[in-house]
C-alpha cells in the first residue's frame, strides 16, 4: 500500500474508524492493520500526533476509561464538527475517485 497516499488521508481514515464507535489508540492501529489485510500499519509516531491535531481542530474529544480489571485507556470519540469534516472528506474522496475513473475511461473513447 502506498504510504504517501495513506499519509495524505490519515484524518479521513481515523475519522472513519472513530465514526463507528469510540476507540483507543492501539485498537485503531490493530483495526487498520486487519482491515488492510496486514498491508498497512500505522506507527504511534503517526497516530498520536494525528489524534492530537484532530482534537485541537475540535473533530474528536478524548476521555480516559478503565474497564473492570483492565488498565486505563484513552478513548477518542467524534464530535459534531468531526462528523461534518468526515462528510466533507468523503465527498472530496468520491470526487477524486470519479475524476480518476473518468480520466481512465477517456482513453477508451
From TrEMBL:
Recorded GO MF terms: DNA binding
* Record keywords: DNA-binding
Keyword Hydrolase on entry: no
Question: What is the annotated signal peptide range for this record?
Answer: none
Q: Which Pfam families match?
A: PadR
SUPFAM superfamilies the UniProt entry points to: Winged helix' DNA-binding domain
Domain of life, per UniProt, equals Bacteria
- Cite the Transcription regulator PadR N-terminal domain residue spans from the record: 14-87
Which PANTHER family does the annotation name?
DNA-BINDING PROTEIN YIZB-RELATED, PADR-FAMILY TRANSCRIPTIONAL REGULATOR
What name goes with this protein?
DNA-binding PadR family transcriptional regulator
User: What organism does this protein naturally occur in?
Assistant: Alkalibacillus salilacus
Amino acid at each position: 500500500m502506498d504510504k504517501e497516499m495513506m499519509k495524505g488521508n490519515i484524518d479521513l481514515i481515523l475519522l472513519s474508524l472513530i465514526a463507528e464507535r469510540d476507540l483507543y489508540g492501539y485498537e485503531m492501529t490493530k483495526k487498520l492493520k486487519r482491515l488492510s489485510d496486514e498491508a498497512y500499519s500505522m506507527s504511534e509516531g503517526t497516530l498520536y500526533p494525528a489524534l492530537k491535531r484532530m482534537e485541537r481542530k475540535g473533530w474528536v474529544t478524548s476521555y480516559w476509561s478503565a474497564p473492570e480489571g483492565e488498565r486505563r485507556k484513552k478513548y477518542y470519540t467524534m464530535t459534531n464538527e468531526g462528523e461534518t469534516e468526515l462528510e466533507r472528506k468523503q465527498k472530496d474522496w468520491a470526487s477524486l475517485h470519479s475524476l480518476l475513473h473518468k480520466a481512465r475511461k477517456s482513453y477508451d473513447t
